[in-house]
Amino acid sequence: MAMTFIPSSLIPFSIIMAITTMIIQRSHLLMALLALEAMILNLMILIMTLSNMTSNMNLFLSMILLTFGTCEAALGLACLVKMSRAFGNDHISSSSLNSC
């Protein structure tokens, strides 16, 4: 019981830290993407620790969450490559909607 208590108490803290990192490092796209990945992985760990994986619904929910995390990572990486080729850096402030 003590082994599951420590991760389940640290997971909300790590989700809050990922959100804080995303707020603080909002000028760089790469840091925002890494914070989003940290949130997805922390949510996955939270689902696995809070629910026993005997139910098929919990397994299905974790697979959906991992699928969305993978799609988010692929789209984020494509946007990062496109932005770095177009503007030369990953600063969000260098790209604006007026230049499109």
Automatic annotation (TrEMBL):
Gene: ND4L
Protein family: Belongs to the complex I subunit 4L family.
TM regions (residue ranges): 6-24, 31-53, 59-81
GO CC term (a single one): membrane
InterPro entries listed in its UniProt record: NUOK/Mnh_C1-like
Cell compartments where the protein resides: Membrane
Keywords: Membrane, Mitochondrion, NAD, Translocase, Transmembrane, Transmembrane helix
Source organism (scientific name): Branchipolynoe sp. YZ-2018
Topological type in the membrane: Multi-pass membrane protein
Protein name as it appears in the record: NADH-ubiquinone oxidoreductase chain 4L
